[in-house]
Write a structure and sequence with these properties.
By secondary structure, this protein is mostly helical. 68% of the residues lie in helices and 0% in strands. It has eight helices and no strands.
Amino acid sequence: MSEVEVEVGVDVPYGKMLIAEALGTFMLVLVGTGAIVSDQVMGGAVTHPGIALSFGLVVMVVIFAVGPTSGAHLNPAVTVAFALAGKFGWWRVPAYIGVQLGGGLLASVLVLWAWPVPEVGPGSALGSTLPGEGVTAAGAFVMEVVLTFLLMWVILLVATGSKEQGLLAAVAIGGTVGLEAMFAGPITGASMNPARSIAPAVVSGTWELLWLYVAAPVVGAALAVPAWWATRR
């Protein structure tokens, strides 16, 4: 990778970047939480490995689809970390986070409307993220920090510009998401993404520990920036 980094979307109209980012986040939340809902209401038809694979594959597919247009952040924590790393203009951060949250909320509304969700409220099957049984809030917070740290470290190493989301970058990032969801999903929900957690929480009214799934990914992603500086070529 060249030492000269390319700013995301430098040749793309800003409106197209925002639309692509919104649609990409919509697809991520729809597929990921939709897999969780399908598993819950269809008697385990998807299975935990299937849920983890759904998250990993949808991230990979969306990077292929909108990476050259918006950078395929799909995650407010990723957007903040790119800005901290100097790879994304701070002036773009609020709008990016806004469309990521909007896309996620639309996806959760569609899941509520189209899937056979038995109830709305705490405990409903909308894919909300909560710690597993017996897992403390402190333990879940630390785990989410570590998961997002590792994910963001990989992202920064393989895809830090608008023209660099190639085959290996998409596979590496999607694979990281899938692997982390596989082993940590039962522990914390393996969110790593405030937009992914906020959307089903708002639509279902599951506010319990939502702060954890907003703060921990941002902290983890920010910590990945100095680690990237220390390990990049």
